[in-house]
Amino acid sequence: MSTVEPTGTATGDPDTIRATRLAPPPPDDTPTRTIDTGTGSAGADGSGGTAPEDRGRVDVADQVVQKIALGALEETEGVGGTTGTVGRMLGRDDSGGHPRVEATVSGQSTRIDARISVAYPSPVAAVCDRARAHVVRQVEALTGLSVARVDVVVTALTLPGAARPAARELE
């Protein structure tokens, strides 16, 4: 049986392992980042109390930012989903009509990559500008993070008369 003792030296005894420090626990699989909740000693109601840094911290996972951005894109007029190769060849959206989003949170900011289709004959640049602005507003308002960048890739145009399905439930 092996034992771990924080003594700092290793001995020749094969049944005893001595280490200078214990290994940290394995990381959680969900990437999260910490948000600075502010400083000062005022409580939530401004009457005093525990300082925010003493109350704890707020971690926002990349997946949370993705879902907020996805919701914002689905609310933007003229935005559809991505299409696969077969869907593009047939002129239809085969992804269910919903955008795809990836987000990376780093410190106090986030970067978002979105893949969408645009309803024809909507002006592509204008739809992308509206979508980008709405994503920034929603993510910053709901997470407190700063949005450093939103990259939008238009994968296809959605044909007129193609009904866009109702917004899917965010997982």
Automatic annotation (TrEMBL):
Biased composition (Polar residues): 1-10
Signal peptide: none
PANTHER family: ASP23_GLS24 FAMILY ENVELOPE STRESS RESPONSE PROTEIN, HYPOTHETICAL CYTOSOLIC PROTEIN-RELATED
Bias (Gly residues): 40-49
Name of the molecule in the record: Alkaline shock family protein YloU
Start and end residues of each stretch annotated as Disordered: 1-57, 76-104
Coiled coil residues, start to end: none
Lineage of source species: Bacteria, Bacillati, Actinomycetota, Actinomycetes, Pseudonocardiales
Similarity comment text for this entry: Belongs to the asp23 family.
Biased composition (Basic and acidic residues): 90-101
InterPro entries linked: Asp23 (IPR005531)
